[in-house]
Amino acid sequence: MTDLELLWTIIDRGKKGENVGISTGLKKLDKLIGGIQPHRYYLCGAASSVGKTSFILFLMYNILKNEDKKRPVYFQYYSLEIGADVLLAKLMSLYCAEEFGVYLTINDILSFEQPISDENYECLKKAKVWLSTITQYIDIVDTTVSADVLYARTLKYAESIGYFETINGKKVYIPNNANQLIIGVLDHFALMNVQSGRTLKQEIDLASSYMVTLKRKLPLSWFALMQQNREASSMDRRKADLSEPGLNDLKDSGSPSQDSDVVMQLFFPFREKLTSYRGYRILGDNSLGQVHRSVILSKNRYGIANQVINLGFYGSVGWWKELPTPDQIIDYTQFQSEYNNIPCKIRQEIKDDSIPKRIEQKKTITFSF
Fold it and tell me: What CATH number should be reported for the domain holding residue 202?
C-alpha cells in the first residue's frame, strides 16, 4: 500500500465516523486536540500542587464512566507519587460527586478526621460497585519504575489484551479488539527510578524515547506528567507580564516536550497573585480566586497551538469545568461551590420528576351528514 493509499484509507475510516476521538469530558479541549487519538503522546506540565494528577484522573474518570464495549479503553497507570488505594479513592470521590451530589475528600473517604457517616458510606458502597465493573480496564503500577521497566511492563500489559504475530518477517501487534486503545499514564517523570550509570535527565530521555517507540508499535497513547521550573513564576517574569508557562519551563529535560505530540500546561493565576487573567477577575471580591485554572496548549502537532482553555477546578473532589467567557459572567461567586458547578444525576432526576408531564387528550371525531 502506498502512502497515498494509506492516507485515503484513513480518510474513508473518518467518513464512517471511525476517527472520532475519545472525549476528555471537556468539549473545548476535545475540539482543539480532536479528542484522545491512538498513537499520540500527550505531555501535561504544571508547577507543584496545581492539579496535574487531578486533571488526568478527571479525564480518566470521564472515559471509564462512558465505557464502550465496542471500543474499550485500557489504562496502565504508573503512579509514582500516590498509592493505588488513594488513586482509586479519588475516582470514588468523582463518582459520588456526580451521581449523588456528595462531595467527599480523600480525608473523608479514609476517615482521617472522623469516621465516615452511614449515609456517605452507602454512597461509597455504590461507588465500589461501579469501580468493580471497570477494574478490568485499569492496571495501576505504584512501585518504582525505571525507563527499562516502563518499556517491559507496557509490552507485557499489551500482550495481556492482544498478541504479537510475525507477518512478512516483522512482529506485528494484534489486539483482541481491533478498536481498543491503551492509555499509558506516567505520573510523573521526575519520580522515575534512575538506573546505575544514568542521570535523571538521561532516565527521562530514555523513557520518553521508549514511549515514542511504544505508541508507534501499539494502539497506545501516553499521558505523561512533568514538573515546571520554579523560575516559571519568578518576580521578573510577572513584571514583564510573562507569567504563563512555556515549553522552556518544563523541568529536568527538554526531550519529552520535543517527543510529544501535544503539550498541555496548567496555570494557576491565583498563586501568581494576578488581579486579573485574560479578562477574568482573580483577586478581590466577586472573583474566581483559587477556583480558576487554565490549560495552555503550548504544542499541538495536529491542530492549532498556543490556545488557552479557562477552567474551574473543584479540588475537594478533583472536578474540572470549562468556564464561560469573561463577558458572559456577572456574578463570579456562582463558580465558587461544588454544588453549583458539578452536574449531579440524582438532583437532575428529581428535577425532571417534578416537572408535570403533558397528558395528551383523546380527541373525539364527530361526523355530520
Answer: 3.40.50.300
